[in-house]
């Protein structure tokens, strides 16, 4: 429900200030929305590329499946994640995470006690884990950016569809009222002048 406006010059000035504020904020919100949209496109492209790379890697790893089963006892401790390093990046006022690296548990093992294929399998599996963790971060980026885009779009709609039209209508009503008051005052002044001139 629109708030009741006072029909006076103070209210007219307040409404003009509001309108100027809305018109100043709107382009900034539009620019922010565009930034979110562009960044979302980049993130979604990265997600697709990451998923494609993971599919390819999974196909590659599946060729090693029998060896992986045989080496499972040795591999499992070496695939433990100690830390996933992430940095924060600012996109139009939103902080989004950026994947840096995965740090695996650094356990020693004998190169001589393992086959040559053990190193290859370990590298492939660690790469799969890195890609999985990177995909998680990309999906988090997408969620944060999509939410930022949604909220900014809602705010733009609020300005364009409600606040600015309400302000315009208030300005029109106040201007009409003040003009009517001025016209009435001029009319009263003319009548008063005539009465004075007539000596009444």
In short:
About 75% of the residues lie in helices and about 10% in strands. The protein is mainly alpha-helical. It has a two-stranded antiparallel sheet.
The number of helical segments is 3
Q: How many strand elements?
A: 2
Distance between the termini: 50 Å
CATH architecture descriptor of the domain at 26-163: Orthogonal Bundle
Q: Specify the structural class.
A: mainly alpha
Shape assignment: rod-shaped
Helix share bin: over 70%
How is the quaternary structure best described?
single chain
Give the H and E element order.
Answer: HHEEH
Mean pLDDT: 90
* Spatial strand sequence of the major β-sheet: 1-2
The CATH topology of the domain at 26-163 is Helix Hairpins
CATH class (first level) name of the domain at 26-163: Mainly Alpha
Strand content: 5-15%
Main β-sheet description: 2 strands, antiparallel
Describe this structure in words.
Helix content is 75%, strand content 11%. By secondary structure, it is mostly helical. The protein has a domain at 26-163: Orthogonal Bundle (Helix Hairpins), CATH 1.10.287. Strands 1-2 form a two-stranded antiparallel ribbon. The radius of gyration is 34 Å and the shape is rod-shaped. The two termini are 50 Å apart. The mean pLDDT is 90.
Keywords summarizing the entry:
200 residues, Helix Hairpins, rod-shaped
